[in-house]
Write a structure and sequence with these properties.
2 domains; two-stranded antiparallel sheet; 6 helices
């Protein structure tokens, strides 16, 4: 069987299925980390957990119930909150943390990004237009 034929059949099988999302990717990465850890520990429990995580990720990727998987992924992404950029791209998040500071608006709670090292700055919230001062 030619390589292109196999790719076509795989694409045909995946049509209408969930595919990868952040929750399945996180489950796979965690499973790979546990497999690496299991090389050192040689624990049956760790290997079972890694296998269950891999099976869960495969089940999510091959599921045809797109709405349910999207809702689950939305809840997962929401629960990550401010950790999300650090998980997606740690190098970029580190550069962002060095260059900018995130300050919450005292009125509405909106997070505003201001450059670090500027001393005391006057900030106008883009959401509620409240003006306040903070140290950057």
């Amino acid at each position: 069987m030619a390589r292109g034929d196999m790719e076509r059949k795989l694409a045909e099988w995946l049509r209408g299925r969930n595919g990868t999302d952040e929750l399945s990717t996180c489950a796979l990465v965690l499973a790979v980390v546990l497999v690496g850890l299991n090389i050192l520990l040689r624990s049956f429990v760790v290997s079972v957990i890694a296998l269950v995580l891999m099976a869960y990720a495969w089940w999510r990727m091959s599921s045809k119930n797109l709405e349910a998987r999207e809702n689950e992924n939305g809840v997962f992404v929401e629960s990550l909150g401010p950790l999300r950029p650090w998980i997606r791209n740690p190098a970029k998040a580190m550069a962002e943390a060095r260059a900018y500071k995130h300050i919450k608006c005292p009125e509405c709670g909106q997070r505003v990004r201001v450059p670090r090292g500027k001393g005391k700055v006057r900030i106008t919230c883009p959401k509620c237009r409240h003006t306040y001062e903070a140290r950057a």
